[in-house]
UniProtKB/TrEMBL annotation:
Keywords: Disulfide bond, Glycoprotein, Immunoglobulin domain, Membrane, Signal, Transmembrane, Transmembrane helix. Residues 19-136 form the Ig-like domain. This is Myelin protein zero like 2. Residues 1-20 form the signal peptide. It comes from Salarias fasciatus (Jewelled blenny). The lineage of its organism: Eukaryota, Metazoa, Chordata, Craniata, Vertebrata. GO terms for cellular component: plasma membrane. PANTHER family: MYELIN P0 RELATED, MYELIN PROTEIN ZERO-LIKE PROTEIN 2. InterPro entries: Ig-like_dom (IPR007110), Ig-like_dom_sf (IPR036179), Ig-like_fold (IPR013783), Ig_sub (IPR003599), Ig_V-set (IPR013106), Myelin_P0-rel (IPR000920).
Length: 156
């Protein structure tokens, strides 16, 4: 009982604070083979954003039984991959102060099908959720996109 009371007193006084990064992603996305796709990842930190200390990591887990691969890293500046399947395919499209950790994948390939994981750290706020996006690459646009094309042409 005393330990519970002590925790309540410390929490209400601000001495004991629980913080964590919250990440938001669309969950799943479709991309048309050969096009560019923006993987949106936004974050909320309970600590003030410090552009010099924020780190962002993107990793890729393929659908097939391959190993997880680093896609992108940000620490004061973008570090796109210099080797691997994403070499020369990743572009930074985020804004640290806008709490945006998004990237663009250029010329999507079928081998890019899988799960993309966005992780953000803003010390001292380094724990919390990660964002995941399941990307599915299609050879052609989905039917709902094809249905919109005639409507778009009529308005031009």
């Amino acid at each position: 009982m005393w330990s519970t009371l002590l925790i309540l007193v410390l929490a209400s006084s601000g001495v004991l604070q629980v913080s964590g990064i919250r990440i938001s992603t669309p969950g799943s996305m479709e991309a048309v083979n050969g096009t560019d796709v923006r993987l949106k990842c936004t974050f909320y930190s309970s600590s003030a954003i410090n552009a010099n200390s924020v780190t962002i990591s993107w990793t890729f887990r393929p659908l097939t039984k391959g190993r997880e691969e680093t896609v992108f890293h940000y620490q004061q500046k973008p570090y796109p991959p210099v080797e691997g399947i994403f070499r020369k395919r990743i572009a930074w499209d985020g804004n640290i102060m806008g709490q945006d950790a998004s990237i663009i994948i250029r010329q999507v390939k079928f081998t890019y099908n899988g799960t993309y994981i966005c992780q953000v750290k803003n010390p001292p706020d380094v724990h919390g959720t990660v964002g995941e996006i399941k990307l599915r690459n299609e050879p052609f646009p989905s039917f709902h996109w094809i249905a919109l094309i005639p409507t778009c042409w009529e308005t031009l």
